[in-house]
Amino acid sequence: MRIDPRTWFSRKTFGKDAVAGLVLGIEAVPDGLAAGLLAGVNPLAGLYAFLFGMMGAACATSSVFMAVQATGAMALVVSDADLGSAPDPDRALYTLAMLTGIIMVIAGLLRGGRLVSFVPTAVMTGFITAIGMNIVLGQLSNFTGYPSEGANRLLKTVDLVVHIGQWSIASLVAGSITILLIIVLRSTPVGSLGLVIAVVVGSVCAVLLNLWVPDPVVLLRDIVDVPRGLPAPVLPNLADVPYLIVPAVSLAFIGLIQGAAVSAGIPTKDGRPANLNRDFIGQGVGNIVSGLFRGMPVGGSMSGSSLVVQAGAKSRMALFVAGVVMALVIFLAADIVAFVAMPALAGLLIVIGFGAIKPSRVYSVVKSGPLPTAIMAVTFGLTLLVPLQYAVLAGVGLGIILFVAQQSNHVRVRAIHVEDDGRLRESDPPPVVPAGDVLVLQPYGSLFFGSAPIFEKQLPEVSRQSSGAVVIVRLRGTDEIGLSLVDVLRRFAHKLRDAESSLKLVVTEQRVIDQLDAGGLLDDIGERNLYRSTEWVGATVRRAYADARDEIARGNGA
User: How many C-beta neighbours within 10 Å does residue 58 have?
Assistant: First the structure.
C-alpha cells in the first residue's frame, strides 16, 4: 500500500495547507463535541475521534483530502448500540471503535469496496433521509431542555410535545440563536467558520441567561470534566467483543458507503479515481487509532472533506495541521470549551440533520417506480423505528432483494432467424414451438436462480403440434448458469422429447458446459447436440442450424 510522498508535504503549498488546516481544526471542535452528544456518550469522545481518527486515517487513505471524522450516521448507530448495559460503557465505546476499524481493514484487504455497487439508490435515499430525521428528533430534548422519555426517538418526540409546558425558555433561546446565526452566516464570507461563531455566541447567551433564570441551561462542564491535555491510550475489552459485533459490522458498512461518496466527490491530487479499498483500509486505521485514544467510531466525512478542499488544501499536511490545531485548543482552551452549551450543539446538529434531507432525491426515487418507492419507504421506516445497527443490515438485505428482482426482470428471450444469405435477424419468439421447423432462441440478461421463473415463462410452449421440431438455445455471452436454469432447460428438453422434437445448445464458456453437465442436461440431450462457440460470431449457430435442417429433412428430428 504505497502512498505518494508528494501528497504529504510541499514547501510551496505549506502556507495554503496551514490555512486550510486551521479552518478545519477550529470548525472540528464544536462538530466533534456535537458528534459525541448525538451518540449519547461523553462529548469529548467525539472530539478525540475527530482529532485522532482524522490523523490516523490520513496516513493510509488513497483520497488525499478525505477527512475521517465521527459522522452523524455513525453517531446514531453508537447511540442505539446500548453501550450503557456494558460493565464499563466508556471502555465498550473504545472497543467498538477498534473492532470497527479491524473489520474495515479486513474488508479493505478483501476488496470489499465493490460492495458499494449492490446498494441501490432507493435504499440509500431512505436511509439518509431517516438519518436526517433521527438527528433532528434526537436533539429536541437538548434543544428544549426537557428530558423526554420513550422507547425510540418518535415516542420521545411525542412525550416532548405532550410536556411542552416544561420546556426551558433559556435553552430554546440559546439553541434558536445558534440556528439563526448558522443560517445567516452560511452565505457570508465567514463560510464554515460561521458554525464556530454560532456555537460560541449561543453558548455565551446561555452563560448569561444562567445568571438570571432559575432553570439553568446545561453546559458541557455540567456533564463531564474537560481535561487540560490529551488522553492516555487504552486497550480494548475483549469481553465486550461478542455483543459489539453487529453494531461494528453496521458501522463498517456505513463507513464504506460514506467513504465511497467522498472518494467519488472529492478530487485526488493527480485527478485519477481514488482506490476505494485503500480508503476503506484508511478508515479502519482511523478507527483503531480513535479507539486507542478514547475516541468513538469514525468514517469518511463529506462535509469535512469538502471544507478542507474549499479552504485551499493542497496535500495531506492540511489534515495534520487540523489535528495540531485541535490539540492546541484542548491544551490551551479547555476551560473555555467547558462552557459550550448543550442547546447550542443541539442547534448545530438540527441544522445538519435538516441538511441531510434532500426532497429532490426522494422525488426522483418516487418517479422511478413503485418498487423503488416501496423499498425507500421501508428503509425509512425501519431506520426511524428500530435500532440503527439492525436497520442498516435490513437495508443491505433490501438492497440485495431489489438487485435480484431487477436482474431477474431484465431477462429477455428473442428468436433468431437465419436468412438464406447467412444474415441473422431477431424477432419476438413465437408462442408455440412450430412443427417441423428450426427455432433459434437467444436469452439476454443475467441467467441466475432469481431469473429462472422469468426465463421459463418466456420460452415458447411445446404442444402436441410441435412434433419434428428442433430448438436451438444460444448461450453466447453467458459465462455462468445456475442449476435452477439448468432445471428449466431440462424440463424444456423433456417436453420437446415427448413431442418428438429435440433441443440443441450453443455455448461459449467451458464453465457453463461444466454446469450443464453437473445438472444432467448433457445426458438428456446427448453430446452431439452441444456446440462450442468460436471467436467467429454467428458461425456456430449457423452450423447448428444447418445440422438441424438436415435432421428434419431426414425425418430424424426426434
Answer: 27
- pTM summary value: 0.69
Angle CA 199–202–203, to nearest 5: 85
273, HSE (Cβ side, Cα atoms, 13 Å): 6
The distance from CA 83 to its chain's CA centroid, rounded to whole angstroms, is 24
Q: How far apart are CA 129 and CA 486, in angstroms?
A: 42
* DSSP letter string, 52-121: IIHHHHHTT-SSTT-EEE--HHHHHHHHHT-GGGSSSHHHHHHHHHHHHHHHHHHHHHTTGGGGGGGS-H
Q: Rg of the Cα trace of the chain? A: 31
Q: Give first-to-last CA distance, the chain, whole Å.
A: 62
Round to whole Å and give the CA distance between 157 and 63: 39
229: left (phi over 0), alpha (psi -120 to 50) or beta: left
Percent of the chain with pLDDT over 90: 34
CB distance 163 to 144 below 8 Å: no
Banded model confidence at residue 406, pLDDT cuts 50, 70, 90: low
Q: How far apart are CA 512 and CA 556, in angstroms?
A: 28
The bridge status of strand 424-427 relative to strand 412-418 is antiparallel
- E strands, 348-466, where? 412-418, 424-427, 438-444
* Of residues 228, 284, 295, 224, the one with CA closest to residue 259: 284
Model pLDDT for residues 65-74, shown as the tens digit of each residue: 888 988 888 8
Instruction: Give the position of cell 444432467.
Output: 520
Residue 68 β-bridge partners: 300
Determine phi and psi for 485, rounding to 5 degrees: -70, -35
- Per DSSP bridges, beta strands 412-418 and 438-444 are antiparallel
For the ranges 23-37, 178-192, 279-293, the maximum mean pLDDT occurs at: 279-293
In angstroms, the CA 368 to CA 391 distance is 23
| CA–CA dist 463, 456 (Å, integer) | 15
Closest CA to 503 of 444, 544, 449, 465: 544
- Torsion, Cα 281 286 289 294, to 10 degrees, reads -140
Integer Cα distance of 182 and 176 in angstroms: 10
d(CA 290, CA 56): 8
How far, CA to CA in Å, does 375 sit from each of 131, 260, 401?
A: 16, 22, 10
**Residues 305, 308, 309: CA angle, nearest 5 degrees:** 85
Strand order in the sheet with 438-444: 424-427, 412-418, 438-444, 470-475, 502-507, 530-532
Q: Within 13 A of 321's CA, how many CA atoms are on the CB side?
A: 23
Q: Is 106 exposed, middle or buried (0-12, 13-18, 19+ CB in 10 A)?
A: middle
HSE on the CB side for 387, CA within 13 Å? Answer: 14
